[in-house]
Amino acid sequence: MRQSAAVFTGAAVVQIELPSSDAFVLPGIPWGAIEAFPTPAYWTYQVMARRITGISPRHRLGSTLAEEVAACLLGGHGIPASVGLAAFQRLQALGMLANTPAESEIFDVLSHPLEIDGRQIRYRFAKQKARYLSTALSRLSADTPPLDSGKALRQWLIQIPGIGFKTASWVARNWLDADDVAILDIHVLRAGALANFFDENLTVERNYLELEEQFIRFAQAIGSRPSELDAIIWFEMMSAPRTVTQLMGGSLAGVRPRSSSDVLAAGSSRGGVVPTKAPPTPNKPGCSSN
C-alpha cells in the first residue's frame, strides 16, 4: 500500500505519494514511514515539499572563489557555523580576501574576539587557520583552478595544505552547484547511519570516496540532487539535536544509531510532515561545524 502526505502552498494542496514503508528504495534499505524522521521517505518528502513551494537551498557565501574557499576553510570541525561565518565576514569586510595577506596579518584579525549574538567569542585554531588561509589565497592568486566539474575543482583544492576532501567538496558544491561531490559532515553521516544508506564498516577518514558514492546513489534513488539533499539533511539534523540524540542512543559523540530497527519503528518525534506553510530554506552558513 502506497503512502502519501500533503504540501500546503497558499490556496493549493499538493499530494505526494511514495511507495509503502516496507518497500525498498535500494537493496536492503526500506523507504520507511513518510512521517518518521529520518527515513528515506521523510527525506524524499522534504525534498519534494521544498521544490513544490519554490524553496531552493542557497549555497554560495562568497562573491569570488577565494572568498568561498575562505568561508569553508574558516568553518569545519570544532568551529560552530556562526563563529566560522563571523570570522569570514570580518576578513571580507576588511578586504583581505581580495588580496594575498601574510599569515601574521590574518592571525592578527582572527585572534581578536568576535561579537556573536551580543557575546565575545574567541576563534579557535586562529594560528593554524591563518597559515592555511594565507597559503590558499596565494595559490588561488597564482594559479587558475579547473571549474569544469566538482571533482576536478576538489582535486585541485586538496593539494592545498589544510584542505581535505570535506572542505574541498564544500567549496566545489557551493561554487559550482556541483552534484558529483558530497559533503560528508557529521549530520549527513548520522542521517546515513540512521536511514541505513551508508555501509557501517566504512569510515569517512579512510573511505570518503566510497561513502560519497553511496550518498550520491541514495540521492538519485529518491529523485533528489545530491546538493539539495545534503543541504536539507544538514538543516533538518542540525535543527533537531534532541531527537537525533534520542535516536543515536543518548549520545551525539558518534555516528552510529542505537539500532536500525529502533529508528524505523520510532516514527516522527518532531510532529507530522504535513506543513501548514512552506518549510524553511536550508542554508549551510560558513560551511558549518563538523
Question: What does the model show?
Answer:
The chain has 290 residues and is mainly alpha-helical. The chain is 46% helix and 9% strand. The protein has helices spanning 40-52, 65-74, 81-93, 103-110, 126-142, 150-157, 165-176, 186-195, 208-221, 226-239, 241-247, 260-266; strands at residues 3-9, 12-18, 24-26, 29-30, 114-116, 119-121. The strands form 3 sheets. The chain has a two-stranded antiparallel sheet with strand order 1-2. The protein is elongated and about 65 Å long.
Number of helices: 12
Number of strands: 6
List low-pLDDT spans. Answer: 258-290
What are the secondary-structure elements, in order, as H or E?
EEEEHHHHEEHHHHHHHH
Integer-rounded radius of gyration: 20 Å
The largest sheet, given as strand count, sense and whether it forms a barrel, is:
2 strands, antiparallel
| Class from secondary-structure proportions | mainly alpha
Please tell me what the overall shape is.
Answer: elongated
Oligomer: single chain
Number of domains: 2
| N-to-C CA distance | 39 Å
Helicity level? 40-55%
Strand content: 5-15%
Kindly report the average pLDDT value.
87
Lateral strand order in the biggest sheet: 1-2
